[in-house]
Design brief:
tt1808, chain A; six-stranded mixed β-sheet; 6 helices; five-stranded antiparallel β-sheet
């Protein structure tokens, strides 16, 4: 693969709705790192790498709106419940020994700050899916949430991942084990509220009410 420059990206990757995705095979780790250096933390693209396969995504407005609203509501939850958290956003997480690099939509360390996040959240619009779990397994991410078709799909990494080989060592669960008191149905309901301010106020009030009932 020839080295991709920003001018090349502008030519073949249309940054418009729906979101665009391009896949390249046989990419070396050094080529991947050179591309990251060329992009220089560009917010226009998400760049992921696994075993020589490079994925570049130009997120749509719908995608970015969804991930931002999830992040806003989660931070309200952390504040209202006095939960120690460290937001790591869309940081590029890399492990050359595992031949993996990933840029999640949102990510957090819970309790203490760490090299890699405990929680990753991915908004699925037109690209991606369950295969993303392998990237996060190699980074040791404990829990992955997919927001897809207006609902959350939750996966938690298991030490013995043989029974969950089809999901790359992650077990599909109904409630977060990292944030067991979080009402995901309420979170999903507020994400779908067309008024972000009203949604944030309603979410905060419901979380506060639940905390006062304990």
């Amino acid at each position: 693969m020839d080295m991709l420059l920003l001018d090349d990206l502008s030519r073949w990757l249309n940054i418009d709705d729906p979101e665009e995705q391009r896949i390249f095979a046989n990419v070396t780790w050094s080529q991947y790192e050179a591309l990251l250096a060329e992009l220089d933390d560009s917010l226009a693209y998400r760049v992921n790498y696994l075993d020589g396969v490079l994925e570049i995504v130009a997120p749509s407005r719908r995608h970015e709106t969804g991930k931002t609203r999830i992040g806003t509501l989660l931070e309200i939850y952390f504040l209202e419940t006095d939960t120690e958290y460290f937001p790591t956003g869309s940081t590029t997480f890399r492990n050359p020994e595992q031949q993996v690099g990933a840029e999640p939509d949102e990510s957090y360390c819970i309790g203490t700050d760490k090299e890699f996040p405990d929680l990753v959240i991915e908004v699925i619009v037109t690209s991606g899916g369950i295969a993303r779990l392998e990237r996060f397994r190699r980074l040791g991410v404990r829990e992955v949430w997919f927001w897809q078709h207006q609902r959350f799909l939750i996966y938690h990494l298991r030490e013995d991942w043989t029974p969950f080989a089809q999901t790359f060592g992650y077990e599909a669960i109904h409630h977060s084990e990292l944030l067991p008191d979080l009402d995901l149905e309420l979170l999903g309901e507020c994400i779908q509220n067309p008024n972000p301010l009203a949604a944030a106020k309603a979410f905060r009030q419901r979380v506060e009410n639940k905390r006062n009932q304990v």
